[in-house]
Amino acid sequence: MSKKTILTGITTTGIPHIGNYLGAIKPAIQASEDPGFNSFFFLADYHALIKCHDPERVAESTRAIAATWLALGLDTDKATFYRQTDIPEIPELTWILTCQTSKGLMNRAHAYKASVDANRDAGKEDLDDGITMGLFSYPILMAADILMFNADIIPVGKDQVQHIEMARDIAGRFNHQFEPLLRLPEAQVDEETQLIPGLDGRKMSKSYDNTIPLFVEPDELYRLIKLIKTDSKGPGEPKDPDLSTLFQLYRCFATPAETAQMRKAFEEGIAWGDAKKNLFEYIDSVLSGPRLRYKELMADLGYVEEVLLKGAEKARSVASDNLQKVRIASGIRPLTYVTPQQQTSVEKKEKSAEELERMEAGRQRAILMKLQPLLDQVAQAEDKEAEAKAVLLAKQAEVEGLKKKARQKAQNELDLLQQELSQWL
């Protein structure tokens, strides 16, 4: 059985936070260690341009995210790690897919509908006010990211499942219209990683401004953790761990045994200050090594750039081959290209000519087989005729020899008689 391909991308619009680590980066790196998968991880910097028009923020985020993946232990010999904008095949595939995607499908995209609803709620006459084509059609770019590498599994949050379904629709339409080249991906939603809370208890997200940056200094990490909202229960009062942001974050890092021990502490009334300190110490111990490596990488961005370019070379070796097949299937071909159907037709013609030659040769062999006895008889007759001629010639030569001897004998006898007659006279 061939390996499954897993693909994950992170948009370069912010500094990685704990939610990114737990929800995407950590499980992706773990998956890359599994020899049963081909792993593709990328910096989605084209996607960053959809909403972020601050070039310095995009650049800073790109540097930080690249260094973060490497600092957390991604082995780029086991996974293909690249920057989206280093793969020119992706925007080309995006355009080809755009020409196969109905506007109606894009009208149903959640992000576009939300923007239209916001304009409607604001009383704007133009419901598309402020909506760019990047926002409208970015599900096609996301589809190209996925279909470019024929990815099987796409780990996403629930809010991104629709985009995977759209990628399947787009691939299906291309396959039906042209040739079945594009694999239909499957969304993988981990319910556990969808529940990572932020400082205010809501899902940790840059949109809510409730994140904990991944590699902040220990003092800043402790300060942020102390900002996490808790209830008014005092020390000694039992606390429900399942309703506590502190506990939910703790169990994302801790082992099952450590989680069970912390749950017991909550039920026995651990003080909120102690709970926050325990959470800080645990997270800091887990991230201290990667934090140091992150600083080293950020001080050596030349190395990080080399890693990304190496990954782009690996990615393009796959992308260029797949795109060539897509181009040919859709009619973008060299002038001398011969389609498989045309090649088959030529081969059939060549085969027919060969068959005719074989048939003619067979017919001639059959005729020869029927004529062979007659030819053998003719040859035998010719041999006998030649033999008879040879005998006749031999007889004729023998007769001529006898005649010659007889004439010579008669001449000799005549000469003797003439001599005797001369003597008498």
Could you describe the 3D structure shown?
The chain is built from 14 helices and five strands. With 425 residues, the chain is mainly alpha-helical. It has two domains: 222 residues, 3-Layer(aba) Sandwich (Rossmann fold), CATH 3.40.50; 85 residues, Tyrosyl-Transfer RNA Synthetase (Orthogonal Bundle). It has a three-stranded parallel β-sheet with strand order 1-2-3. A two-stranded parallel ribbon has the order 4-5. Helix 3 packs across helix 12, helix 4 packs across helix 7 and helix 9 packs antiparallel against helix 12. The N and C termini lie far apart (135 Å). The model has no long low-confidence stretch (mean pLDDT 91).
Features:
single chain; 425 residues; mainly alpha; Rossmann fold; Tyrosyl-Transfer RNA Synthetase; 2 domains; three-stranded parallel β-sheet; two-stranded parallel sheet; 63% helix; rod-shaped
SSE arrangement:
Layout: E1 4-11, H1 18-32, E2 37-44, H2 45-51, H3 55-71, E3 79-83, H4 89-98, H5 103-107, H6 110-121, H7 133-147, E4 153-155, H8 161-177, E5 186-188, H9 218-226, H10 245-253, H11 256-267, H12 272-298, H13 301-329, H14 340-424
Parallel strand pairs: 1-2, 2-3, 4-5
Helix pairs in contact: 2-7, 3-12, 4-7, 4-13, 7-8, 9-12, 10-12
